[in-house]
Structures are given as C-alpha cells and as structure tokens.
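Bump. Still looking for YifB family Mg chelatase-like AAA ATPase structure tokens.
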Amino acid sequence: MSYAKVLSVGLIGVTGHLVEVEADLAPGLPAVVLSGLPDTTLNESRDRVRAAIVNSGQHWPNRRITVNLLPAPLPKHGSAFDVAIATALLGGSGELPLFPLEQVVLLGELGLDGTVRPVRGVLPMVAAAAQAGITRVIVPLANAAEAVIVPGVRVKAVDTLHRLVAFVRDGTALLDPPAPTPEGPAAGPDLSEVAGQGLGRRALEVAAAGGHHLALLGPPGAGKTMLAERLPSILPTLDDEAALEVTALHSIAGQLPPGGQLLRRPPFQAPHHSATVASLVGGGSGLARPGSLSLAHRGVLFLDEAPEFGKGALEALRQPLENGRVVLNRSRGGTEYPARVQLVLAANPCPCAKPAGDTYCECTPLARRRYLGRLSGPLMDRIDVRVTLDPLRAADLMATETEPETSAVVAERVDRARAAAAARWTGNGWKVNADVPGPRLRRPPWRLPAAATSALRQRLDSGSLSARGFDRILRLAWTIADLDGRDRPDPSDVDEACQLRTGEA
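Sorry for the wait, here they are.
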C-alpha cells in the first residue's frame, strides 16, 4: 500500500479545524511535495521529518512522496503537523500498520534526532478535536498537562517518534499525562498597601463591579500605577467558559505557566509605552498572532504613561473596546481574537510632571493641552470612569489609626454587585453593566425618572456630553446602585456617576 492518512488539527486564530494528513508514495525520482496551503515553517517540515525518521531507526522511502493537508483551502501554519506527517509517511511506505491510529489526532513538532517537541495552541487544538467527535489524542509530553484540561478526551503523550512507532507496531504503552499541579493561593499586590486616595479606591471598586474602563490622572507618586496593578485582585475569578478562552489564548501565545491548569485569575497586561500596534492589538506575517489586547481578554489592559504611546497604537484600541474582539486581516487570511478587556489608562497631567502637582507645574497651558491631547477625544469618550488623583499628603502616607480595606473585603462587595447585575440581566447574555446597550437603559422598564436624569439631559443638549457619555453615565449609576445594595439608581447615584465620568460634581 502506498497511501496512508492520519488526523491532526490546524488553528486559525483561536478556532481549530480538523485536518486530514495524506501521504502517497509513487515510483519516480525521490522528492517530497507538500500541498494544502502550508506556510514556510510547515514547508520546512520535509527536512525535519526526514532526519527524524532516519535518526529514529526507520527506513526513509526513496520515492516520490506527496503529502496533502485537507481541507486544501484552509491555511496551515506551524510545526504541529510534523508527527502526523512522519506517521503518514511511515504508514504509506508499509513500515507501520495505522489501524491503531484510526480516529486519533496527532500533534507535535519533531527534532532532527526524533524527539517530539511541544507546540503552541495545544489546548484549542484538542478542544477542536473534541468538538469534531474525536476522543483520543496523542500530544508532546510537555503539552500533555495542558491537553487534559479539555473534558471527554483521552490524552496520551510521546517524547520521541521511536516511542510512537513502537506503540503502533508492537503495542508498547504510551506515556500518561502528568498530574495537574494544584493551584496555589492567590498572591499579588493588595489594596491595603495603597495609602489614602479615597476617590481612586472608589473609582477602582466601581470599575471592577461594572466592568468599566478607567482613566487615572495625577502627578507622579499619587498612586495611579499602584491602583491599576491591584484591580485584578478585586475582580471575580473566571468561570469555566472564560477560563477556557483565556487559557486557549495564552496557549497560542506560548505563555501558559507550567502545571496544566485553567487560568482562573483575570489576566493583567501592562505593555511598555514603546509597544507597536502589532504587539498591542496583534499581528505578524502570515496569520496574525494575538497581542497584549487579546492576552488581557477577561482581564485588565493597563497602559501606564498613556500619552507616551504612539497615536496609531492608541487609536487601534477604539474599535476592539466597543466590539470586544479584534479582527486582523493579512495576505494569508483574516484572524479574529477575543478582546473583551477592562482598559486602565494612567497619565501625568503635563510633561514636567512635578510630584507636587499643579502648584509647581512649569508647563504652559498650551503644553498641557497638547500633552493630554495625545489621548484623543474618541478614545477618552470610551472611558467610563475618569478621575484625577491629588498628591499624597504626609498624613495619608503615615496614617496608622485605621487600616485600609484589603482586596478581599472589596472583592466581596464587587462579587455581590456583579451577582445583582447578572440576575437583573439574566437571559440577555449580559453579565456586567458595562455590556448593556444604551437603548435598553433608556427604555422601560429600566428607564430612570426624568428628575434623576435632568442634569444629564442638559449636558447632552449643551454639547458638553456625548450620547455615548450619556449612556455610560447611566451604566455607572446602575453599578453604583448595585454596590450600595439598591434595586434602582437614585438621583445621588446619577450624580456620583456623573462626577466619576466628568470629574465635576
């Protein structure tokens, strides 16, 4: 027999597709032809597979070899097809009887010595195999703990091509996945370490409870970065669906920590202000990779010194902040990644950034306007909460009479507020108030009384508030009511929401 077929999986973004790897060996001049839209890395598998087969003690067939990856129109990229290609070649040459591998997905990269090396994206690949009805997969040993996260799939591991050949030929046992490492206790920055800044702490709590974007302005040392870094500590842990999405994205990026467990804590990404558009929203040649925006999915994207970021990078955030996803079109096809994040911006009020604040500022009014003007109006209009922090006083820094609230205490209130919002919007697919469309809040039964929104309507008519800002203040008011245990916002909630949004009482 000169034909054989095995199964593997290819990725487009976070979506896996079952791929049939065919091998046909025909008489003629020795050559290897690879078809099915392979990229450069996959084309190079011809040399890797040949060396791995020979160095594993197997015979390389000196015939004309055609390897085809189906479906042909689907772009294939990466080295995860190496093990499947080598197995199909050995099956087509008559070296291996492939019936033990029927309805089994093979994943892994081959080293020249025949070792099976880990690859990126194993978690979404195995999940795609499970959705296609495949219940058995063979993965690299280093990826096995990650693969067993997917329920309903029997995972076996290999460390060398020789071990896989022995299993197919002689029934030698494959390796079992290592036991998952138990998740350790939560560790990280705590809100109790933040001195003073009652307004900043309140803004952080409201942002966490409603899933709102946040901008923190103020002089150096006021606590902007400290507050932002502690936002994940008061966010709820991720549910199963969100944890699987986040873990799959980090698997594709090759950033999963060892241990083989779902990422239950909201991710935190803080790219440097020199980050390019591609590193921030995703990019690269061929099929685009996820950027910091997608790696912060279901968590926090923190841009410290936000005015120092490139204008193109900041403006590229506008559409994903609205849609919760980023679409990257390249010559080899389009890729879509989820990007539902909480954006936190931190900025000094001016270029000189005196620690004492405006009192000793040396910048002209024009320089101040130009500096913060780097944060465009359309971008800032998408930020729900915008607060200005005052410089810390010695009394705040050295206070010992009362201990600041810990993250655990604040997180309990955030959990209750989110539970109230989820119960209110149940059946609509919205989990936090920031997700609720504005028209829903402006119509019965959720429309607030005219007395509560009269000031907002005046701001809208005068042009000092946009329609988007009007809706965002309504969302903030609902979040404040949830935090304070009220069924509906009252006028004081709307006033506080307006202050958090505009900085004006």
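Residues 3-170 form a domain with the Ribosomal Protein S5; domain 2 fold (CATH 3.30.230.10).

Edit: fixed formatting.
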